[in-house]
Amino acid sequence: MQRLHQFLQKQVDISNEDWLLFSSRFEEKIYPAKSFYLKAGETENYLTFVDRGLVRFYVEDMEGNETTVGFSFEGWFLNVFSSFYTRKPSMYYGEILIETSLWRIHYDDLQEMYNRLKIVERIGRLATEQLVLLKSERELSFLTKSAEERYLDLFNKAPHLLQQVPLKYLASYIGVTPQALSRIRKRIS
Amino acid sequence: MQRLHQFLQKQVDISNEDWLLFSSRFEEKIYPAKSFYLKAGETENYLTFVDRGLVRFYVEDMEGNETTVGFSFEGWFLNVFSSFYTRKPSMYYGEILIETSLWRIHYDDLQEMYNRLKIVERIGRLATEQLVLLKSERELSFLTKSAEERYLDLFNKAPHLLQQVPLKYLASYIGVTPQALSRIRKRIS
DNA sequence: CGCCGAGTTGAACTGAATCAAGAAACGTGG
DNA sequence: CCACGTTTCTTGATTCAGTTCAACTCGGCG
User: Fold this and answer.
1) Which of A6, B71, B81, B119 has its CA 20 to 30 A from that of A31?
2) Distances from the Cα of B77 to the Cαs of B4, B7, B81, B84, B124, in angstroms?
3) Could you give the angle at which helices B2-11 and B16-24 cross, rounded to 10 degrees?
């Protein structure tokens, strides 16, 4: 919870009063490894801050092939936003890879906070802007970079993932098959 | 200007008073075809609403190859957000393809509006959320779809682009060479 | 009329997908 | 703590989508 406070304080100045109200609407939730944060077809009802742990998001096609779309980051909000914003069922699965401790606020509570506290609205805008930057970077990487470059970028930006996440998930996040990534790794080393 | 009002009104209810203040900070700007909205190295200082026209955004690599990253849409804000949010020079070029009429607000004015009008902060948040949805969709299309499918998607979502935009720009937006797209088109028809 | 950029088509090449099999690592129950 | 079965990773052979290089056509414009 303190980590969330720090995260927000880095972007905006929240008064004690506002923080007390806002933080009172969050609840802690701990998921064991291999459980599901969310499954496709369910609607995302929470905005969630990752205190500790790791979540993988993926979609499944008709043949049952999984494509990893993203991972959670400690000290950040996590991203089933399409369902959260639209209030429609999620296409994404959120799978807990290691025991994960989250703080979450319900959609309805968040809307109420948006209405009551100007600062929360601002936090929402700023956090969403950050997200656009991340997505734009990823868009550009698909258009201008090779699979090998995307792997090396990941290696630099999130080296811990390479330890904790099976190669096949990294592969589909990068946009190639596990076999192809295995060969890329061989080539590099 | 009325179009902007309608666009915003669709998402939130703005009082007349707020609209008068907010809209007073916008100015109209008309660019002729083949001019530049923005060049790489310049910093984006405006949030811009497209009333009429078409803008292409692209990056250039060291060898001078262009990659088209996106297009503007009439009745929407346009997207050199990475520079606008971070206040750093843009990597993107914004090239005017046909005569384009824009309404724009300066960064400083927008920040002032964010501070003075709660409703503007909300508009900012909601518009940014929409942007995340668009980017997420595109991310997914790169991970799970073929070049041919991305072309067909574009065909369905923005058929006017196929008329107005040279094939080579569409090709790089989709992520292939002009030759490859030419063959895809042949295959389809 | 001639030029130039855009689009098409062809041929050779390449990175990655697919199919398949074997090796290594992992987890679970005894 | 070991043994077994399952999952993950690697490696090889083949196929395929898309790239690259190159030549040619077409349409617009000076």
Assistant:
1) A6
2) 9, 10, 10, 12, 11
3) 130
In the numeric block, which tokens belong to residue B48? 């811009």
Task: For residue B28, list its beta bridge partners.
Answer: B103
How many Å does it take to go from CA A175 to C1' D14?
Answer: 22
Q: Where are the alpha helices (DSSP H) in B58-97?
A: 81-86
Span A153-164, pLDDT tens digits: 999 999 999 989
Straight-line distance from CA A182 to C1' D14, in Å? 18
Are the beta carbons of A85 and B132 separated by less than 8 Å? yes
Inspect the interface and report whether the beta carbons of B143 and A172 lie closer than 8 Å. yes
Supply the pLDDT for residue A103. Answer: 97
Closest partner residue to B122 among A59, A67, A121, by Cβ?
A: A121
- A161/A171 Cα distance (integer angstroms): 12
In which residue ranges of chain B is pLDDT below 70? none
Q: What is the pLDDT of residues B145-167, one digit of tens each?
A: 999 999 999 999 999 999 899 99
Assigned CATH topology for domain A2-136: Jelly Rolls (2.60.120)
Question: CA B131 to CA B120: how far, in whole Å?
Answer: 16
Q: pTM above 0.85?
A: yes
